[in-house]
Design goal:
Distance between the termini: 23 Å
Number of helices: 13
Largest sheet: 7 strands, mixed
Helix content: 25-40%
Structural class: alpha/beta
CATH superfamily: Alpha/Beta hydrolase fold, catalytic domain
Oligomer: single chain
CATH class: Alpha Beta
Length: about 375
């Protein structure tokens, strides 16, 4: 079937018609980078002290209610010099690839290939605690989680594997929302030669000063973010931040809406809650994700800045952008402002898709 790419493991593919033309510039540049980086294809800054903190600023990225439909058998691999580009979209905490469905659909309708990644233990692999189903909060506080022990190495491996496959068919634009930004940084440092653009959508972009998501949320610039203990159980004992998104407590619901999508109608907020997952590994917040200037810092990059974000405060977004730009003055963030957007972005996906659409166009 024309325009159908291979299915990615643990990623949902949204199909669009193939883009025209041979991507000679992309192919030649990728060949040069492949030789340059083949001797050093690992992230040397993975190690760092892990710091387990309870919830300080909920790096939320919420799941959409709709799931992309399944695909048939994968065809043979296409000639990489003739294939369309691919957007690889990475969700944030307590979420899944389906979060991207509205934006992915819009990109596909514009002719792009799109893969919505499910990180390990998310989406199609989601763990639903039996106690969560029964709303037994006492049992929920101690029920073991299979996500305990997962960390950024696991997340990076998942995304890098999908990027490697997608790059066989054309240029790759890697996009992360919220906690998904740490995966973008790690993957960008691991395989910079396979990426033509990286994009952070109201996402964590750690630096040497703020090397982890935990450090970012604890920064003074995030003081205006909504912060409150909503965890169930002890994160250090469970190994995960566990949240109860089925709460019926009006005060907790109001707080969650303020953190996630204060500008959205209540009906849309409830749909978002229905797609969220209880557990996120604490190690994902504590893992170091600092891109090096000579690798991550060479990839063109964009930041989508949300002006009403009460989870990753706008002041923190500005600090992360500035600290990322400092060591790479010749390659700075292209910043696009969305002044009225809360953490999940505008209800209408069109403005976001408009920006993302231009990122692939730079390389056609």
């Amino acid at each position: 079937m024309e325009g159908v790419g291979p299915r990615e493991p643990h990623g949902r593919v949204v199909l669009g018609p193939p883009r025209q033309g041979v991507l000679d510039h992309w192919w030649g540049e990728r060949a040069v980078h492949s030789v340059e980086f083949m001797m050093d294809d690992t992230n040397g800054e993975r190690k760092g002290a892990t710091r387990r903190t309870a919830l300080r600023g909920l790096g939320l990225a919420v799941g959409g209610a709709a799931l992309a439909t399944g695909l048939g058998p994968s065809p043979a691999a296409a000639d990489p010099r003739r294939g369309p580009g691919t957007y690889v979209l990475v969700h944030g905490t307590h979420s899944a690839g389906a979060f991207w469905t509205p934006i992915a659909r819009e990109l596909a309708l514009r002719g792009h290939r799109v893969v919505m990644v499910d990180q390990p233990g998310h989406g199609a692999e989601a763990f639903v605690a039996e106690s969560y189903q029964r709303q037994d909060l006492t049992a929920m506080a101690v029920e073991p989680s299979p996500l305990k022990g997962l960390g950024l190495d696991d997340y990076e491996a998942r995304v890098t594997g999908i990027v490697r496959r997608a790059a066989r068919n054309g240029p790759v634009v890697l996009v992360g929302h919220s906690l998904g930004g740490v995966s973008v940084s790690r993957v960008g440092d691991a395989v910079p030669h396979l990426l033509h653009h990286i994009c952070y959508m109201a996402a964590f972009c750690p630096s040497r000063v703020l090397p982890t998501a935990d450090a970012c949320t604890a920064a003074p610039e995030n003081a205006d973010a909504v912060s409150r203990e909503l965890t169930v159980g002890d994160p250090d004992r469970l190994g995960v931040l566990r949240l109860n998104f089925r709460t019926g407590v009006s005060g907790e619901l109001a707080l969650l809406k303020e953190m996630i999508c204060a500008d959205h109608p209540d009906a849309d907020f409830r749909r978002m809650l229905a797609g969220m997952q209880t557990d996120e590994p604490v190690a994902a917040y504590a893992g170091r994700a600092v891109g090096r200037a000579g690798r991550w810092g060479r990839i063109p990059r964009t930041y989508l800045r949300f002006g009403r974000d009460r989870t990753i405060a706008t002041a923190l977004q500005d600090r992360m952008i500035a600290e990322a730009d400092a060591p790479t003055p010749g390659n700075r963030f292209r910043v696009h402002d969305f002044p009225g957007a809360s953490h999940v972005g505008p209800l209408d996906p069109t403005p976001i898709a408009d920006v993302l659409d231009t990122l692939a166009g730079q390389y056609s």
